[in-house]
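Quick question, first post here. What does this chain look like in 3D?
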Amino acid sequence: MSAQPVHQPAPPPAPAAAAKLRERIRQHARAEHWTPAFERDWNHALQQAQQTYDLTPLHAVVREWTGRLDTAPAVAAFLASGCDTSDGVSLEDVIGARG
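> Answer (accepted):
Ran it through. Tokens below.
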């Protein structure tokens, strides 16, 4: 019996994934707010990658923003449905403050 890892790491995004993602963000209804936020996250990850010679921070930004764009319609539908969100938990309480 050989030991196998329980969790396989996600494969890295395609080389052009960031450019395609940036274009998706620019076409989104929230592009005015999301484009500068994506650029900030991307530039921060790029600086980290240049210092460490590790592309993991760049891959993480692509995955995070892809998830954000993919779930945006469901979030918008939830908010438009008039559901009571007053008992929710602040995202900062869950994941901590972003720096």
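Residues 30-77 form one domain.
DSSP finds four helices and no strands in the chain.
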